[in-house]
Design brief:
Length: 330
């Protein structure tokens, strides 16, 4: 099947029209700070837990280390810096009395300790609802200036710390199209999403956590070179899928790419147009840089593309995003 590649055919006016058409501002009241996660009801979580049949668990996260995808192409993001504060060598050094413990005596406790420094969106992560602004406003109409030097006074990532659990659905678009991975610039349309779901015999429901596989991360891992993965070209969701997300009333959208939407953008005068609409206007949390190979292979083997999904953020007060270790359990 020949693929459609994105074209620079949309304008800022088109983005604004879509933003107003698909706005959820006020839907859950003027004080809401969790957006489309409101679609997940307690009974949805109970039913999602019933999908666990084999107890097979899949981590959908990259390891957080210096070998991550950040190459300075997007803002000031860098790979995690892991530093040991106390090592086993330190613990057993004479300076700490480790070499002077008499035979048969316990001595003081010995331990190791460490720390990590990293941008909160340098690896597998959630984009929070305070991450992107639309014409000076974030989700639910809050002023962008409420994200100040002290962090996000509204829509902080800690507000959703107990919300990220429910029915997960993998839409393996690359496999459906018979490709190991989609080329950079390939726009995944609403028709692609619906056709993939139909082929997989899975129904998209209100409150679902939708995970879209392009194969891009796997291709880069296999090649042993990230290249422009974090900040450059990418396959991804076409701008038109704003409507699909809005109509389907899903809880969250996730992909194996660095920004979910197709890159380069489909617009002539707006950077990341899809982001402009889905986060601040629709109010959807976005998961990026998900590792999907093992889950995708298992789903292809057993024909089951739904599972229990859980991915709570670190409750970092007033943060605009968070690293995560998302889990799919079948």
């Amino acid at each position: 099947m020949p693929r459609r590649y994105n074209e620079k055919r949309l304008t800022f006016k088109d983005v604004c029209t879509a933003a107003e058409r698909f706005s959820n501002w006020g839907k859950w009241g003027p004080d809401d700070e969790i957006g489309t996660l409101n679609f997940v009801r307690p009974e949805d979580v109970v039913n999602a837990a019933k999908l666990i049949r084999r107890g097979k668990r899949f981590s959908l996260a990259l390891n957080f280390d210096r070998h991550g995808p950040q190459r300075g192409l997007w803002g000031n993001r860098f790979n995690p810096i892991h530093v040991m504060l106390i090592t086993g060598t330190d613990a057993m050094s004479s300076r700490r009395g480790g070499e002077d413990i008499p035979e048969g005596e316990a001595g003081p406790i010995r331990y190791a300790d460490d720390m990590v420094s990293m941008p909160l969106q340098c690896g597998t992560q959630w984009d929070g609802l305070s991450h992107i602004f639309y014409r000076g406003k974030m989700w639910n109409g809050y002023d962008a200036r409420l994200v100040d030097s002290d962090g996000a006074q509204r829509n902080g990532i800690e507000k959703v710390k107990a919300e990220m659990a429910g029915r997960g659905v993998l839409l393996d678009v690359a496999r459906y199209l018979g490709q190991a991975y989609l080329e950079d610039g390939t726009a995944i349309t609403m028709a692609d999403l619906d056709a993939t779901a139909s082929a997989q015999k899975v129904e998209i429901r209100r409150g679902d956590f939708i995970i879209v596989r392009t194969g891009q991360m796997e291709q880069r891992l296999q090649a042993g070179e990230w290249g422009g993965y974090a900040g450059g070209g990418a396959p991804g969701l076409a701008f038109e899928t704003c409507e699909w997300i809005y109509q389907r009333q899903i809880a969250a959208i996730c992909t194996d790419t660095w920004g979910c939407e197709v890159r380069p953008p489909e617009t002539v005068d707006v950077e990341s147009p899809w982001h402009w609409v889905v986060i601040p206007k629709i109010g959807i949390s976005m998961g990026e840089m998900f590792y999907l190979k093992e889950l995708a292979d298992d789903c292809a083997n057993d024909g089951m593309y739904q599972f229990f999904f859980v991915a709570p953020p670190l409750p970092i007060t007033k943060a605009v995003g968070s690293p995560i270790n998302p889990m799919a359990i079948k």
